[in-house]
Amino acid sequence: MSSMTLAIIIFILGYILIASEKLPKTFVALLAGFFMIILHIESEEKAFSHHIDFNVIFLLMGMMFLVKVIQQTGLFEYLAIKLSKMVNANPFKIMVVLFLLTAVVSAFLDNVTTVLLISPISILIANEMNISPMPFLITQILGSNIGGTATLIGDPPNILIGSAANLSFMDFLKNLTPVILIQLGVLSIIFYFVFRKDMKVSNTDRARIMSFNEKSMLRDKPLMIKSLLIFSLVIIGLLLHSVLHLEASIVAFSGAILLLVISKIEPEEAFKDIEWTTLFFFIGLFIMVGGLIESGAIKRLSEEVIKITGGDIKKTSTIILWFSGIASGLIDNIPYVATIIPLIKELAITMGDKAILPIWWALSLGACLGGNLTIIGASANVVVAGIAKKNGYPITFWEFLKYGVPLSLLTILISYLYILIVYF
Amino acid sequence: MKFSNLLVDDLIFINQQFTDIDELYQYITKKLSQIIKIDQQKIKNAIKERDKLGFPGFDYGFAIPHGRLPEYNDLLIAIVKLSKPITVNEKTYDFFFIIITNTQGSNIYLKTLSTIVSFIKNYNKELKSISEKNELIEFIKSKDVKITEPLKVSEIMDKNFDSVRLDSSISETLDIMKKHNKDFLPVVDNDGKYKGKISVIDILKLAYPPYVLSMTNLSFLSDYRAYEDFEKKEATTKVKDLYVESSKGDIIFEDTSIIELGFIIVKNNLRKVFVVNKENKIVGVVDPKTLLDTILRT
């Protein structure tokens, strides 16, 4: 058996096991990855120094540290209440501002953390207003996936793409943020027609929200000031990282360590909060995909893709956008993007780095926005569904599909038009 | 503690011959003195002191002379079987258990005494027919008589307890709690089998569902709908919606010793332990306070 066949077999087996969720995906990815090394498909040397993207690992880890400190401050609950009062506790407007807040926070923090912070306060607000929290939860799922697409650090696929394609925080801001803002606006308008009728609230229930005292949420002011200061520094650092010739991971990670030091958090405490399974899932995936690259399978595949598309960038972007959208609605978008990245890099060799930029944006938009297709399309969806179920508001697969399919297809369509207009 | 483990080989004498009780005491106190390193005369006096209150003789020719010594902080048993009975106060005796212990009233001493008495009652014929030292030791071993046995949970547990069923309403549960001044109740199924427990804190969760608990704090609230809705919810919610399911280590079998009970309580930091029988039905409840009181009393 050639090493290419062997690599493909290991890869597909690993992929099926990850998708089936019969075994913990982190272990599957690590095992598949290490088999690539054990069977000499890729060398240890290559796996550790070349394929594992430590830029991604350290960026994720830095953001995890930052988030854990910031979320203790109560800032996000404060913002949710503050915004709800600013729209005079009009239930529909509350839903929209919480949708937008979720999107904005997701653009900077990971989506799961964002929904974990915002959905509980949303359920509380809905309960106090005596209306169903369902529309709040569904719009927040959509918001977290759309918002996460906007920046380099918003969603793991973007972190992967940014690092692999050497695209800066600023590149993402210039190319993706505008189309995401358009989508958020369009969806807010659509929500008006979809959910308006569920939003009848009595004057006394409205008064309940208005009498919330959000200031008391901010118990630990010094910690909040420190975290906001460091977080702003990190964002400034990210805006300038390509100018400073520093990787995004260095900016985020050093900011995180600085915050831990000045807020006097013990290392044991800080490292306990790191999601090691996520980090090692990435490590496993990198080695696993590395085997596929070393075996030459990716190269062969790219040759086939070029045959089909004739090397046409517009055609390739379109296929990547829609295919990624559908695929990531059904499977985990992280391993998907990790696999597609080397393929696009291979295409870049024949087509040129500059020319293939629209393909990278198509991959990001497709993979991130496709997460809204189904309730299992992204981790944030699964987490919200879990919270909803535990509190007695189950979101069924079909129930979510009613909103997820049309709205995610709409956002991908907007992205498609955006790519056509801006890049071709 | 086993009776056989208290016996000392060098203090068992079978088929001895003495003319009277004084000769016997002279012989045995000499042996005891060699072992416990206390003046023989003192030991003898202690035993005789006790005999003045009435010779400790029993039926079937058995006697249990005993002496208490202030300087001896232990307990020792000597056994003497005579080949020819001797007479004390017009009764004949041929089998002696001689006990030496401290002047302080000790738990083990009294228990040893009663153990020997009942041992004699049960096995006097067998004891009389024994002709060798090893035979006696083996016989006592084979009967596996215990002097002290730890209390069982069933002896200290509170047998008066109330329980609720899985499909009882929370209102019912609260009524029972209020009536009997309890802040927790065991939960059973329709067959009375233990399923778990429910406490007032579990019931308060009606007002604090998981999403609320995942928030940083609730200081921003001055009104809270969950409190206003509490009465409505309490009537419609069942015990099965809120109770804490039985987990490893929160129940204990009735025949468990209180030593093990304490271990379980301390290790799992339990405030209440439900006691079940072999059919997993609740027969009582026990708490750390009762256990502590029991330890201090015995």
Question: How would you characterize this protein structure?
Answer:
The complex is a heterodimer of chains A (424) and B (298). Chain A is mainly α. Chain A is built from 22 helices and no strands. The N and C termini of chain A lie far apart (44 Å). Chain B has helices spanning 3-6, 21-36, 40-51, 107-128, 133-143, 153-156, 170-179, 200-204, 210-213, 225-228, 230-236, 239-242, 258-268, 288-297; strands spanning 12-16, 62-63, 66-69, 75-88, 91-102, 164-165, 184-188, 194-199, 244-245, 251-253, 273-276, 282-286. In chain B, helix 2 packs across helix 3 (40-51). Chain B folds into 2 domains: 3-143, Mannitol-specific EII, Chain A, CATH 3.40.930; 154-297, CBS-domain (Roll), CATH 3.10.580.10. In chain B, 42% of the residues lie in helices and 21% in strands. The A-B interface holds A 71-74, 77, 81, 116, 119-121, 123-124, 127-128, 130, 208, 211-217, 219, 387, 390-392 and B 209-212, 214-217, 219-226.
Give short descriptive properties of this protein.
heterodimer; A: 424 residues; mainly alpha; 22 helices; B: 298 residues; alpha/beta; Mannitol-specific EII, Chain A; CBS-domain; 2 domains; five-stranded mixed sheet; four-stranded mixed sheet
